[in-house]
Amino acid sequence: MSVLFRLVHLELDPVTGWRVPLAALASDGRALQLVPAPVPVSQLGREALSLFELLREALPAIQSFDRLPICMGPQVELSEAKAAPCNIEEVGVWLSTLLDRNRVQLPAARRTTDKTRQRGRQFFRTWGVHRWVKNRFEPARQWPTAQQRPKGLEAVTHWVEGKQRILLMEPILPGSDMALKRIATRALAYRETIRAISDTTDTRFVAYMLLGGSQAARDDAAGVLRQAVHQLVDLSVVQQRDDFVSSIRELGSTRELQI
Amino acid sequence: MNELFPRYRIGRVRQLVDAKAVPVPNGANATWAFDNENRYWVRKRIVNTGVESLFAECVGWLFGDTLGLRQPRAALFEAEDGWSWLSERVPNATHWSSELRDRIANLDEVGAMLALDAILLNEDRHAANILVQPSVGDQVLLWAIDCGNALVSYPDDFTDTQRPSVRNHARGLPVPALRLGALRAAELASRLERAKLEAFIDEAVAVAEEPRGHEILELLCERCQSAVAIVNDHLDNLERLF
What separation in angstroms does the CA of A211 have from each of A53, A119, A120, A125? Predict the structure, then answer.
């Protein structure tokens, strides 16, 4: 008889999707088997660990393979049902091994990595606009007197300055959820700051999505970023890429003419 | 946030990005969202919940804040499709379960929650509307969320004699231990000045555009004057239930 299993996850961050397995459920259609996951002591902070332990105590309340009881709360989710390998003898033992092996899904890269930054720089070089693109837009330096500038507003990786316009440009490597969320938050903070400063310079925050990653990852990234940035440029779309390059060239040129 | 809008006690959020849906049943299509200050919110759009719900959330939050409830920070966000009610995410939280009865660290705050429900006629205090957050030792802190179904938005039902039904109430709360905090909150409510209650209603009307705001204010004043009796009755009903 085939056995289906699901993982019960404790989701610690609803935006990045960072989660740890809390238990596994198996069902052969007649009986339900529940295997608690080991406590990921070294991976969780004190508060999250307390919640993990609280939920572990509540696990016996799970009586259905398809539905969690209310008491598990808003941070616990069931994974999709999958078939267990048919050649295993003891499902519980197999699930224990599985849980131990998948103890924690670590978040993806926490920062826009050097690799992403370098790839962005390489893109500008490839398309012949690198001479106008500067590294690191530092708000404290560029907006030194702005009262509205929030403390700790992080730098933007690349930027180009025109006569009356500034493009802040952040490279995106699809598939890096943590970096994505961080960039989206930063874009929102910039948009709010730009709105509050309201000087004569038209400053816009652009995210440009580098090549690579699955289509699903690209779609996910676009879905989040489109809400946060002034403009999202998908470099895999020829027209968008060309328009982006043209606007950098145009902006940089106006600055040169001014000088 | 509030510095920009000193008139209002409920803050406004300017920039917001939606994430996925909050995985709870009957969640009014709530989604997780985050803002430009990296705060996480539960977002409920008025187009999904209705104007009455927004009005009740506003009044409930303001009143709860005054009574000393433990409730998440609240804010409002205006988008093209109208207002959204934002309730800050309580991290590391689960829902109420009666097995936690003897581990509650904030009994008085939970008592104040029952008082609020009684006064505003909130009949929606089921287990999923009480969040549980682990606290020091083996204790837990209870948070009150979601006042959107309180009958304060419906002046025809919100009469001075009405008591909330406890049919859907979360089971297993230690009502005798909550009575002191609940009655303290009720006494506080009975002493609230009319101007204070008017400020609650005005702030809610400003976003929810409730045309019968004045009528609701009168009813709320009457209920506050009878708060101790109303809360006592509610506690009695809950004790019978458990």
Answer: 42, 9, 10, 15
Q: Which of A200, A110, A124 is nearest to A169 (CA)?
A: A124
Residue B183, CA atoms < 13 Å, CB-side half-sphere: 11
- The pTM for the full model equals 0.76
B106: Cα within 13 Å, side-chain hemisphere: 21
Q: Which of B17, B92, B134 is closest, CB to CB, to A188?
A: B17
For the segment A64-97, what is each residue's pLDDT rounded down to a tens digit?
999 999 999 999 999 999 998 887 778 888 888 8
Which of chain B's residues have a Cβ under 8 Å away from the Cβ of A40?
A: none
Q: How far is CA A218 from CA A106, A113, B148, in A?
A: 20, 18, 37
- Select the more confidently predicted residue: B144 or B213: B144
- Which token pair is A91? 């499902």
When CB atoms are compared, the residue of B17, B35, B127 closest to A71 is B127
Helix (H, G, I), strand (E, B) or coil at B162: coil
- ipTM confidence: 0.84
Residue B234 contacts by C-beta under 8 Å, 6 or more apart in sequence? Answer: B114, B115, B117, B118, B163, B164, B166, B182
**Mean pLDDT value of segment A48-54:** 91
Tally: H helices and E strands in chain B: 7, 9
β partners of residue A5: A26, A82
